[in-house]
Amino acid sequence: MPATRRAPPSLATKKQPAQQRAAETYERILEVTAQTLADVGIERLSTNLVCERAGLTPPALYRYFPNKYALLSELGQRLMQAQNARVDRWITLEVFAGGVESLERALEGLILDTYEATVQTVGGVWIMRALRAVPALQEVRLASHAAVTQEQARLLAQALPDADAAELQLVSRIVVELIYATVELIFDEPLDVKAVARTVAGMVASHLTRVQPGAEVAAEAKRPRAARAVARKTPGAA
User: Fold this and answer.
1) pTM of the model as a whole
2) Which residues lie below 8 Å from residue 81, measured CB to CB, with a gap of 6+?
3) How far apart are CA 83 and CA 180, in angstroms?
4) pLDDT in tens, 153-186
5) Contact status, residue 178 vs residue 207, Cβ threshold 8 Å
6) Which side of the chain, N or C, has fewer Cβ within a 10 Å radius?
């Protein structure tokens, strides 16, 4: 007989605190969970350990969170909100109007700012890893990325009105995922943070010349005359 598929754990909080004391307990649980996650990692995190560190009984915790995945889900949503808040600071219509170099600088700033937002979040890197590695939590990450994608596709459509809407949607989705993956890479390997951000930003910004009809011609026209002359004389040059 085929094995019975186990139902995914519930991620919903059982109860939202209505009074100040309850709200303080709720936040205390999340603070201790984040610190415990930073100390011991995903696999060793447990509701019993959180209760022990928070000085709470299991029933007090279970009044709000049914399991550790619900705790991680709430922490994940908060981290996503903190990261996503950085997008509007850097990616604007004015940035697109400034051309590829302007967008490249903005994207580099966004990557570095997103990295800093994660660093400043207690247990931030472990929360990111949990959202990627734990199947039950992936929807938190995907839902957040979908919302950012829609907003960025809308902005791109305003900045590049002649571009294909479906392509802008695809580009937005890929860029959102790429920036997130870049931040993960910076945490996972001992790389130069600014160099990684600068490289990825350059790769993404340069793709605009392939999205906007006529952008390659416009970009060529903005190059210094001497540079255009050298490019025409160079075999295989763009």
Assistant:
1) 0.83
2) 144
3) 9
4) 999 999 999 999 999 999 999 999 999 999 999 9
5) no
6) N
